From TrEMBL:
It comes from Chitinophaga agri. It is an enzyme of class 2 (transferase). GO terms for molecular function: ATP binding; protein histidine kinase activity. It catalyses: ATP + protein L-histidine = ADP + protein N-phospho-L-histidine. InterPro entries: HATPase_C_sf, HATPase_dom, Sig_transdc_His_kin_sub2_dim/P, TPR-like_helical_dom_sf, TPR_rpt. The lineage of its organism: Bacteria, Pseudomonadati, Bacteroidota, Chitinophagia, Chitinophagales. Residues 658-756 form the Histidine kinase/HSP90-like ATPase domain. Keywords: ATP-binding, Kinase, Membrane, Nucleotide-binding, Phosphoprotein, Transferase, Transmembrane, Transmembrane helix. Its EC number is 2.7.13.3. The keyword Phosphoprotein applies. It comes from the Bacteria. The chain crosses the membrane at residues 500-519. It holds the Pfam family HATPase_c. The keyword Protein biosynthesis does not apply. This is histidine kinase.
Length: 757
C-alpha cells in the first residue's frame, strides 16, 4: 500500500505544476494532502513550492494568500537544509518575486528575481530559467525605450529556453509578448516575425481562441501600410471573437483597431461606428485606460467626418478623466488638441500646446515612434500658419524617423506636405523631387502606378522652362530689330548731312568721304566680329542645352534603375510574406522546411537588390558588406546560435549582379547547411567564410565548418540534397569549379573567374 502511494505521489508531482496554474482551487487541497503524506525532503520541498505558487496565482491576491505563500516558502527552505538543492532555492526566489509584485512591492520583487537568475543560468533547467526571465521582464516598462529594449532582450532569452525545454505553450506565449513589445517599439518587421511564429505554434496545439493574435497582426499590417492585410486580420479577429462568444475587453480592442484600419482605408463612416461600439464596451466595463485609448482614435475620425467640435468635446472629456497621463499619452493628448484647434481655426489655442510638444520631443530619441506623431502635428500647425521653412524642417525629421521604423503611411503624408511647402517657397526642383518620393511611397501603399502623373509634372515643368526661354529669345530679337532700324535711320541722316556738306566745300567733302570710308570699314569689321561672337554664343548655348538634357536623361535613368531594384525587392518581400503566410497553414515539417529554405534564398536575392537600390553604383555589389549582412541575417533568423562563431575573411571585391546572385545563393546554401547540420544543439563550433582573389582574375569562395561532417558512408553524388544540387548548378552558371571535402567538418569551395564590367 505504501509503495502504491509513493508511485502515485511521484506521478502527481509531475502533473501538479500544470494543475496549480490551471485550477488553484483543486490544486491546493490535493497538494496539502500530498505534503502530509510525503516522506522525503526533496518531495516536501517540491510540494511546498507548488503550494506557495498556487496561492500566488490566485486572482486578486489577499493578505491571507500572501501569508500562506510566505509560510510554504519557509517550509520549503527548512526541508531544503539537508538537500541543499540550488534549483529549489532559485525557484523559491522566483515565487517570492511574484508574490512581492502582486503586493505592489516592485523593489523587493526585482531583488528576488535578480537573485534567482544567476543561479539558474549555471544550472541545466531551461524551463525554470525561462520562467524567471519572463518574471524579470515584468519589472520593465514599455513606455521608456531603454526599459523596453531590456524587456525585449529578456523575452528573447525566455523563448530560447522554452524551446530548448520543449514547452510549446509557454514558448508561444513568450513569442506573443515579444511581438507585442516590438510593435510598441515600432519595429513592425520583427513584430510580424514573432507573431507569425506564435500563430504556427498555436495552430500546432489546436488553439481556437486566436482573436487577440489576429487583432495584433492586423494592427501591425495597418501600421506598415498594408491595409488589405490589416483589414483581413481585423475581420478574422472579429469573426473569431464572435465564434468564441468573447464579450470581454478584448472585443473592445478588436473593434477599436479595426476602426483604425477602416479609417486608413477612407471608410470613415464604418470606422466611426466601430470606434463608438468599442467606446461603449469600455464604458460598460468602466475601464478608464481603454476609454482613453478609444477616445484618442475616435478624435481623428470625427475630424475626418468634418465634426472638429465633437472631436474637441471628446478630447476635453478625456483630459478631465485622465489627470496624470504618461509621457506617451501626453503626446496623444497634445497632438490631438492641436489638430482640433487647427481645424476650428483657433490658432492661438493650438499654439499653447506647441511648447509642450517640443519639450516632449526633446526627451525622446530621434527614431521613437511617438516622434512621428509630434512631427506630423507640428507640420500641420506650421503649414496652417504658413511658416513653410519650419514645415520643410519637420517634414525632413518626420521622413527620416518614418523610414527608420517603417511607418509608411505617415511617410507618404510627410512627403506630400513637403512638396506643398517647397511649392509655396518657390523651390520647384525640390518640390518635384518630394512629389516623386510621395508618389513612390503612395504606390507601395496602394499598389497603383502613379508614374504618369510625375512624368506629366516633369514635362510640364520642362515645357514651362522652354516657353520662358523662347519668350526671352523673341524679346532679344525684337530689341535687335529696333536697334537695326535706329541704326539705318541714323545712317540716312548722316548721308543727308554729308551731301549738304559736300555741296558747301569740295575739299571738305573729300575729307569726309575718306573719313566715312574708313568709318564704314571699321563698322563692317565690327559687324563681322559681332556676328561671329553671336554664332559662338548660340553654339555654346546649344551645347549647354544638350549637356543639361543629357544630365536629366542620366538622372532619370538612374532613378528608373533604382525603382526597378526597389520593385524587385518589394516583389521578393511579397513572395516571402506569402511563404510565411502559407507556412502558418501547413503542418507537415518537410513542407515547412522547404518553405523556410526558399525564404532564405529569397532573402539572399532581396538583399542584393536592396544593396543596388541603396548604392550609388547600379551594377556592382560590395560583397564584403553583403556577406556580413547575410550572415547577420541568418544568425538572427535561426536564433539560438550563441554556440556558433562566424569567422569572416572577406576581401574588398565588387561583383557584377549576374555573378553576385549565384554566388550569394551558393553562400546561402552552404551557410544554412552548416548551421542546420554541422553542430549539435550544445556543441560549440566555428564556421569560416572567406572570399578572396586568387590571381589571374580568379575568385575563391570558401565555407568551412569544424562540425561533425558527413555521416559515415554518405556519398554526395548519390545522396546529395537539393541544396547540394543547387550549388553544383550555380557553379556551372558561374563557369567555375566546385570542391566539397569532408575533412575535420565540411568544406565547400567554389572558384570562378571574375567578370569585368
Amino acid at each position: 500500500m505504501n509503495r502504491l502511494l509513493l508511485v502515485l505521489l511521484y506521478i502527481l508531482l509531475g502533473i501538479l505544476p500544470c494543475m496549480a496554474r490551471q485550477n488553484y482551487r483543486v490544486a491546493v487541497p490535493v497538494l496539502q494532502r500530498m505534503l502530509a503524506e510525503c516522506t522525503t525532503d526533496t518531495g516536501r520541498v517540491r510540494v511546498s513550492l507548488e503550494l506557495a505558487e498556487a496561492y500566488v496565482i490566485r486572482p486578486g491576491m489577499t493578505d491571507t494568500d500572501y501569508d500562506s505563500t510566505m509560510m510554504y516558502l519557509q517550509h520549503a527552505a527548512s526541508f531544503n537544509i539537508r538537500a541543499k538543492d540550488a534549483r529549489w532555492e532559485a525557484r523559491a526566489d522566483f515565487i517570492r518575486s511574484k508574490a512581492y509584485r502582486e503586493k505592489g512591492w516592485a523593489k523587493e520583487g526585482r531583488d528576488a528575481i535578480l537573485k534567482a537568475l544567476p543561479r539558474l543560468e549555471v544550472l541545466n533547467y531551461p524551463e525554470d530559467l525561462a520562467d524567471a526571465l519572463m518574471e524579470a521582464a515584468n519589472y520593465y516598462s514599455i513606455d521608456k525605450e531603454n526599459q523596453l529594449q531590456e524587456k525585449i532582450s529578456l523575452y528573447e532569452k525566455a523563448v530560447t529556453q522554452y524551446h530548448k525545454a520543449g514547452n510549446m505553450p509557454d514558448e508561444a506565449y513568450a513569442l506573443k509578448m515579444l511581438g507585442d513589445c516590438y510593435h510598441c517599439w515600432g519595429k513592425y518587421d520583427e513584430a510580424l516575425l514573432r507573431l507569425n511564429q506564435t500563430l504556427v505554434l498555436y495552430k500546432k496545439m489546436g488553439r481556437k481562441d486566436l482573436q487577440g493574435l489576429y487583432d495584433l497582426l492586423g494592427t501591425i499590417a495597418t501600421g506598415k501600410g498594408d491595409y488589405s492585410l490589416g483589414l483581413t486580420y481585423g475581420l478574422q479577429a472579429l469573426k473569431t471573437a464572435e465564434a468564441q462568444k468573447d464579450t470581454s475587453l478584448q472585443l473592445c480592442t478588436i473593434c477599436n483597431r479595426l476602426s483604425i484600419t477602416l479609417f486608413e482605408l477612407g471608410d470613415y463612416k464604418k470606422a466611426q461606428e466601430l470606434a463608438e461600439k468599442s467606446l461603449r464596451i469600455a464604458k460598460q466595463y468602466q475601464d478608464t485606460m481603454s476609454m482613453i485609448v478609444v477616445t484618442t482614435n475616435l478624435v481623428p475620425i470625427y475630424q475626418k467626418n468634418n465634426d472638429p467640435q465633437k472631436a474637441l468635446d471628446l478630447m476635453t472629456q478625456m483630459v478631465e478623466m485622465y489627470k496624470q497621463p504618461l509621457d506617451k499619452d501626453q503626446v496623444w493628448i497634445y497632438t490631438n488638441m492641436v489638430k482640433c484647434y487647427v481645424e476650428l481655426r483657433q490658432l492661438d489655442k493650438a499654439a499653447s500646446y506647441i511648447p509642450g510638444l517640443l519639450t516632449l520631443s526633446s526627451q525622446m530619441t530621434r527614431y521613437n515612434y511617438y516622434q512621428t506623431l509630434i512631427y506630423a502635428t507640428l507640420v500641420k500647425y506650421y503649414y496652417t500658419i504658413r511658416q513653410f521653412d519650419k514645415v520643410t524642417y519637420y517634414c525632413m525629421l518626420e521622413a527620416d524617423a518614418c523610414k527608420r521604423i517603417g511607418h509608411i503611411n505617415a511617410l507618404s503624408l510627410s512627403y506630400l506636405y513637403w512638396f506643398r511647402a517647397d511649392s509655396a517657397l518657390g523651390n520647384l526642383s525640390s518640390a518635384i523631387q518630394h512629389y516623386k518620393e510621395y508618389k513612390v511611397v503612395n504606390d507601395s501603399l496602394f499598389k497603383i502606378s502613379k508614374a504618369g502623373e510625375i512624368a506629366r509634372l516633369q514635362v510640364q515643368y520642362d515645357f514651362d522652362q522652354k516657353n520662358k526661354d523662347i519668350t526671352l529669345k523673341q524679346q532679344n530679337i525684337e530689341l535687335l530689330t529696333r536697334q537695326g532700324l535706329l541704326q539705318r535711320a541714323a545712317l540716312k541722316e548722316a548721308q543727308l548731312t554729308r551731301n549738304i556738306i559736300i555741296t558747301g566745300a569740295v575739299m571738305l567733302l573729300l575729307l569726309l568721304i575718306l573719313s566715312y570710308n574708313r568709318y564704314q570699314l571699321k563698322q563692317e569689321s565690327n559687324k563681322r566680329l559681332q556676328l561671329s561672337q553671336e554664332e559662338i554664343s548660340k553654339k555654346n548655348l546649344s551645347l549647354q542645352q544638350l549637356i543639361d538634357t543629357q544630365d536629366k536623361l542620366l538622372e532619370e535613368k538612374e532613378w528608373l534603375v533604382k525603382e526597378i531594384h526597389h520593385r524587385v525587392r518589394n516583389n521578393l518581400q511579397i513572395v516571402m510574406s506569402l511563404l510565411n503566410t502559407q507556412a502558418a497553414y501547413l503542418h507537415d515539417s518537410n513542407a515547412l522546411e522547404a518553405i523556410s529554405e526558399s525564404r532564405y534564398r529569397m532573402q539572399a536575392i532581396s538583399l542584393i537588390h536592396q544593396k543596388l537600390y541603396l548604392s550609388g553604383n547600379m551594377a556592382l555589389i560590395d560583397m564584403q558588406n553583403y556577406i556580413r549582412e547575410l550572415t547577420s541575417y541568418l544568425r538572427s533568423d535561426f536564433g539560438g546560435l550563441q554556440h556558433i562563431y562566424f569567422d569572416l575573411d572577406i576581401a574588398a571585391i565588387r561583383l557584377d549582379v549576374s555573378q553576385a546572385v549565384p554566388a550569394s545563393l551558393i553562400l546561402n546554401e552552404a551557410l544554412t547547411n552548416a548551421i542546420k547540420y554541422a553542430f549539435s544543439k550544445q556543441e560549440a563550433g566555428i564556421i569560416q567564410v572567406s572570399f578572396k582573389c586568387a590571381g589571374d582574375g580568379m575568385l575563391t569562395l570558401h565555407v568551412h565548418d569544424n562540425g561533425e561532417g558527413f555521416p559515415h558512408g554518405f556519398d554526395i553524388k548519390t545522396h546529395g540534397t537539393m541544396g547540394m544540387r543547387l550549388i553544383e548548378t550555380l557553379t556551372e552558371q558561374l563557369e567555375g569549379t566546385l570542391v566539397i571535402e569532408a575533412s575535420q567538418g565540411v568544406s565547400v569551395q567554389v572558384s570562378f573567374k571574375q567578370q569585368m564590367s
